Amino acid sequence: MEPGSFTKPPKTWRNWLIGNPLQTADAPNQTIGKLIGLAVFASDALSSTAYATQEILMILAYAGASALTYVFPISLAIVTLMVIVSISYEQTIHAYPGGGGAYIVARDNLGELPAQTAGAALLTDYILTVAVSISSGVAQITSAFPVLFPFRVEIAVGMVLFVMLINLRGVKESGTAFAIPTYFFVITMFITVGVGFFKYLTGTLGTVVNPPAFETAGLLTAVTPFLLLHAFSSGTSALTGIEAISNGITAFKEPRSKNAGITLIWMSSILATLFLGISFLVSPIHAVPSESETVISQLARTVFDGQGPLYLALISGTAVILIMAANTAFADFPRLSALHAGDGFLPRQMTFRGSRLVYSRGIITLAAVSSMLIIIFQASVTRLIPLYAIGVFLSFSLSQAGMALRWWKSGHLKDGEQIVEPGSIVTHDEKWLGKLFINGFGSLCTFVVMVVFGITKFKDGAWIIIILIPVLVTIFFSIHHHYKNLAKKLSLQNYHSTTIKRHRVIVLIAGVHRGSLAALSYARTLSEDVTSVHVSTDPVESKKVKEKWELYGEGTRLVILDSPYRLLVEPVMDYISKLLEMRQPNEIVTVVVPQFVPKHWWENFLHNQTALMLRMGFIFKPGLVIIEVPYQV
Amino acid sequence: MEPGSFTKPPKTWRNWLIGNPLQTADAPNQTIGKLIGLAVFASDALSSTAYATQEILMILAYAGASALTYVFPISLAIVTLMVIVSISYEQTIHAYPGGGGAYIVARDNLGELPAQTAGAALLTDYILTVAVSISSGVAQITSAFPVLFPFRVEIAVGMVLFVMLINLRGVKESGTAFAIPTYFFVITMFITVGVGFFKYLTGTLGTVVNPPAFETAGLLTAVTPFLLLHAFSSGTSALTGIEAISNGITAFKEPRSKNAGITLIWMSSILATLFLGISFLVSPIHAVPSESETVISQLARTVFDGQGPLYLALISGTAVILIMAANTAFADFPRLSALHAGDGFLPRQMTFRGSRLVYSRGIITLAAVSSMLIIIFQASVTRLIPLYAIGVFLSFSLSQAGMALRWWKSGHLKDGEQIVEPGSIVTHDEKWLGKLFINGFGSLCTFVVMVVFGITKFKDGAWIIIILIPVLVTIFFSIHHHYKNLAKKLSLQNYHSTTIKRHRVIVLIAGVHRGSLAALSYARTLSEDVTSVHVSTDPVESKKVKEKWELYGEGTRLVILDSPYRLLVEPVMDYISKLLEMRQPNEIVTVVVPQFVPKHWWENFLHNQTALMLRMGFIFKPGLVIIEVPYQV
User: Fold this and answer.
1) Can you tell me the ipTM of this complex?
2) Last residue of a domain, which of A369, A385, A401?
């Protein structure tokens, strides 16, 4: 084979579906700029403006209509937390230019167990992001077209598969495909909030016409600190998705960290502005939390004086962004699982990049598991949502704790000293104490939010996640144990080459025919020491075999094993076991089994699968090799 | 290994379930006498007395109550047919002592196509016998305990599995288990008919008290010849099962033919007597065909003056015999399928006798397919019954046509001449013309019955069978073609031994470690001509492999295949294909693939299955052997 020649994948229907294969050397061309990056990684975070304010109002409603005014101060608190988390992640992006999600930060600073926990939490949450956001997008569609309601599960799974296919085409193409709807949503949302503020300042903003009924659940409670904390934690769903960019740094064009960092700042600014704007405007218009009409819809109706084209633009943009939030998970889950796999905590195959240079196995895994969730939970957002967000806050908390520890290390280094860690290099930082405070405070806040979440939503389904994450971490460590153990066993330390001194070859003979004679002549090329073995269930038949063997057996020894119980495989296994017991070190036994290769697959059912059964019976025997010698019919 | 030592099957839970294994030499002890034989082979035929009379009345009812008196003459006609068929089969049993079902008779006298058709028809019918009789037995149970109705499918499948297990224990034990209920049914039925006649002759037989309503379906029709023919063909369901003994001759003690023949005569006599008796008595008691109460129940109530212990004994005996009719099919189906398989029309594995000397694969196949039917048809007798009986009459017709032809041959032989056929020896018979007439007439009658059946029940489901039988026959012939072709290819006629002159060995190397070095040292025992091949998806990695190979490769050549599209298997397949293209005759190529053998099966998912994929890619290449060299971790 001449150098430079190599195998191109064959053209198949896959080329049409996901595009032509890309060479490994093309990888740098598959990165994206800031504008596309914002569309790819921000749709998850930005889509939360569609429901975060409403979530806060829903909780405050327990204390009656007057309590609803707390929505703005609570939103301010959430935005403060958002700023802290964003600053933390902006710092992380610069500290970890090779990708600095919670997994890497925890791994380098806190150790393997917290890292695997953070990773498991994030992977779980990405799966839920797909299930929840697609289901909620489909729910918007089925509210508009109730006739589609019975097919919601099929539509949702179909959309998961669609997003999967787009992602299998590669990050560049998926980014372009998703940029337009993301910017459409952002622009219409800004117009809504902007017009709302203009009317508010000019005194022309009215209140909601025909608002939905104000529903109170039984007795009103007082405005307790717990209620406010509960409302706060419900509203923090606005923060989900903010970590996405830190996992995806390597998808950005060089200079990666700078581009990723700027994109993060854009994203947080847009998110904070829209969220605060909405939370401010709901009070003057007297918006009411309700299951039958979203707060966004009430706001848009009031701002645009009815259900005109701008109202429709915002509502349809909202439906689309919810479906696209899934795309963020598709961008991050495969990268994160490849990181786990690279460290040996998930099957190594997850690091394999498919024909389009994306981690195709991660993409397919995400699509499969989230489709399963959608089917199990029948695409019900209400049943899926309590499982959601705990994982994100757990990973926030671990990641920021890791960063805090990193500042501690940084502060105790002398100028010019450095610690080289797998994911980054730690040097001295003048402002380490302030940064440590920010990260430590952020870690504490997100931890508290997670605990409140876990407690208030435990019965509704959060328990599933609280059980699932330790289970996943255990699985990750068993996989890791396997790879570590394998590497130790395969290591060439203290390796001494051994030559095989004796090679016994056994040929299994069901009858004397061209197939078994082909196997015999193959066996005779392997070794001088060839024995043929025939299992006899019928004395007449075996006498014939013996006679024919004398003619055709080329002088090799024939052993006939009597089988009065009509067993076929077991007598051979017994015979070979006895040989193996007598085996010297440096001796090897090979069993040659003639195997017909029929023209059609179904014809295999017409033959005994002796080789297969021997292989299954002998899988744990050292010093034994089983060979099927094919005979084409 | 010393002579006389052989492998005993290991003790497992199977011994407890189906008994200890039996040696092949035990086979003659596993035969049965006439009393047990009647129980094993007659339950199918005898159970038809439970419904045959009613089936006739149901059709006659279309012409009003007065037409019901035709039941006895029609029954007489059916019994005449029964006598003809019985005589035919009694003659067959003596002509074919090795088993003489429709399949063998048709094969020896009519040729392969009619034989396979008869066999396919019978096999189909045995499957339906199990499904119909178990379902109808369960229907009796659920009529008594309506609370069990929702579980009828589960109960029916459970009973199929129970009958299967009993049959896997062996024909002797299953016969003993089923003899008691069969004789219980026969005796209670005889008491019922006997007491009925006694009361009739003494003038004390009344009429049915509170008979079910006489239901007429729309307008009454006249008593046309077609109606009578229809009623006749419906009543011929009494004949199903009469062929059972002829297929099962080898299960009888020596002298086989005599024992089997006598059993057949007993069975036919019992069947004819009970059937005629019942058909005679229904008129004087004014029994009414009805869906809500069976004719048997009306008769028993009238004879025994109410629902006393004898009434209950008959009804429960009827339920049990219906379930046991399945046992006849379990006795015959495996034997018949073993005959087909022995002639190469079904997978040869069907001829393999299991640990208890029964054709266990046939038994399991029958249980599986009939359970599937029960599940598909939800254990509904009404939906299953139109599929039933066509097959039996088709095989009757073919079998008797074959016998007629045999008498023709016999009549044209000179005294002392003989024709040796696979299943029997034909000699001159003085009475050949009379016997030819009986068989020819029987064949015609059963053929007409089959056609009437097919036409009147076509829409209800008979079409399934009319399509299925040719499909099965086609499958049988494709299997036969495979085996014939294989035998031709494997035949040693004109065989010249060829010695392999060159043996190239390729070792696939993913990395340099103990696993790949073990494969290398194995490969070096096979041939002098060893090349190692490494697929490179990462230049850094393959440089390392190259360097390590210089240290550990024992001087063997290393070929590195560049794979810029990150393919693993395809470059190897390309490389090997090129080698094979250049291959000389008498040259063979062996690919050695190192294979980890992990401790736990799930750990296989953590590795690429390269050997498996190569094997699948190369299954059709001549001159290539693929070897996995296991490396135990």
Assistant:
1) 0.77
2) A385
